[in-house]
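Methods, example record. To illustrate the input and output format used throughout this study, we show the complete record for SDR family oxidoreductase. The sequence lines were provided to the predictor; the line carrying structure tokens was produced by it.
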Amino acid sequence: MQRLKNKTCVVTGAALGIGRAIAARFHDEGAIVIATDIDAATGAATAAEIGCRFEPLDVREEADWARLAGIVPTADVVVNNAGVTGFEAGMVPHDPEHASLEDWRAVHRVNLDGTFLGCRYAIGAMKAAGAGSIINISSRSGLVGIPGAAAYAASKAAIRNHSKTVALYCAQQGWRIRCNSVHPAAILTPMWEPMLGDGPDRHARMQALVADTPLKRFGMPEEVAAIAVLLASDEATYVTGSEVNIDGGLLAGSAASPG
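The corresponding predicted structure is encoded as:
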């Protein structure tokens, strides 16, 4: 049985990684998927491979969301997945002492502003039907301090809190619009490739990075997508304002915060 049959689902940051896996799994579950990304070329190629629709979207820009609302005025599911770490252009200081205000704001503009705008779009696209599911991709880093990635951790913590605010607001309006956050830890996406490399020591590097994880491995994007399917489906209609950790058991113990 297709669990999302005929549901209109918008996924941001769908070109690669977790977003791509969610878009693909939603499509397999019978959804009408609108994959969005700032990278139009990769996003369009991904959508063509999956067999879904693509729309370019810069989640930082209110005008882009207004354009999407005109094209996709109603939706059943919105996944706010687009995000950045701040290290995409190379290693720069992101600790609380040395991070620049410009770099801090750049991370928050994508991760937090993008999620705020995505939630606002989702409410507008769902309130006529009075039902829907908003899924915000936060991070394990939103639950613990990350000394070397202060902006990223703060933005993901804010996503966690805003998800609860959205959930309560929608409930107060009498809508069956649910909002939940998902908190992945080390998921094997292209973001990790610069650290892993493709040399003979790749496996050793991978093992070192997950040494503190009880399950001793990276998670896979498809495992995050499985959680998203549950939250998007009618099986989870009593789940709102909740957070789902997918971290291989990391937060179950004391080894929660890396150096």
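Annotations derived from this record:
Residues 192-218 form one domain.
The chain has two domains: 8-184+221-245, 192-218.
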